[in-house]
Design a protein that fits this description.
4-stranded antiparallel beta sheet; globular; 275 residues
Length: 275
């Protein structure tokens, strides 16, 4: 979520058992309160996950807080939780412009189009190449607590993280994905980015737990992935392995899209929210 120009205060409320509210304690708040630790910084965007949160500042610095058992905060998990925002030192000197939180992993992209990933990697969602074990087999590194480059050959414009998979939009308007794009066990996991065929000139992407949305520059909305709850918006509950056009929105001028865990939403040019 991008924030307006200064002055800005970052507010949080709700469940805080893992420190994800960033207020120095692990408890819940049923009213909005300011995250005081960020008052001294020019925060330009915030992202909220189920158990962790992050903030991006105008200078590109990245702060994270919350649950850290899988390395989801981007620094060594010396503690299980971090209840106050902490700078991700591994990205010092890098200007982060956008980031995303998935199930147990995070993604970020800098001003040069370079993508980064960290956190859980048991399904290859961080793009880690397989490591060779002593017996000759190959296995994925389960956790990556320090941010590392991913999708090395791509110049990325936007990143989006699902439950166990990752999706990026390149500056050429192409969509690439890797990890476990379906509920675990349904399809083989991959750690190398694969281009999603059939999508051209995409302007933005959104990713839920196991479903994906892509909005093209001509206003066409495409959807694919899990559809158990009708989150693809195509009139049935059958999953789709390839992008399918959301015909019900074809006559509308869409300007933004969003995906929750198991639902989707879109914003029209007239300011109407559809879900």
């Amino acid at each position: 979520m991008a924030l307006p120009s200064r002055p800005v205060a970052v507010l949080a409320w709700g469940s805080g058992e893992d420190g994800q509210l960033g207020m120095g304690r692990c408890d819940e708040k049923d009213w909005a309160r300011c995250i005081g630790a960020l008052d001294a910084y020019a925060v330009s965007a915030v992202v909220a996950g189920s158990r962790n949160s992050l903030a991006i500042c105008d200078d590109g610095s990245l702060f994270t807080w919350g649950w850290n058992q899988r390395g989801t905060l981007g620094h060594p998990p010396e503690t299980k939780t971090e209840s106050s925002p902490a700078h991700v030192d591994a990205l010092i000197g890098v200007k982060i412009v956008q980031a995303a939180i998935g199930g147990w992993h995070c993604l970020a992209v800098d001003d040069k189009g370079r993508a980064y990933a960290w956190g859980g990697n048991e399904y290859g969602q961080c793009g880690e190449e397989p490591e060779r074990k002593e017996d000759g087999t190959r296995a994925l590194r389960r956790d990556i607590p320090i941010p590392q480059r991913c999708a090395l050959k791509l110049k990325v414009r936007q990143v989006a993280a699902g439950g166990t998979h990752s999706v990026v939009l390149t500056q050429e308007g192409h969509v690439w994905t890797w990890g476990q794009p379906w509920p675990p066990g349904d399809i083989k996991k991959i750690s190398t980015p694969v281009r999603v065929q059939g999508l051209e000139q995409v302007s933005m992407i959104a990713v839920g737990a196991f479903h994906n949305l892509a909005l093209s520059v001509d206003g066409i909305l495409w959807a694919w992935g899990n559809n158990e709850y009708g989150q693809l918006g195509i009139g049935d509950t059958q999953p789709r392995s390839q992008p399918i056009r959301v015909e019900g929105l074809s006559n509308l001028s869409l300007v933004d899209i969003a995906a929750g865990g198991w639902h989707s939403a879109a914003l029209t040019k007239e300011g109407e929210v559809l879900e």
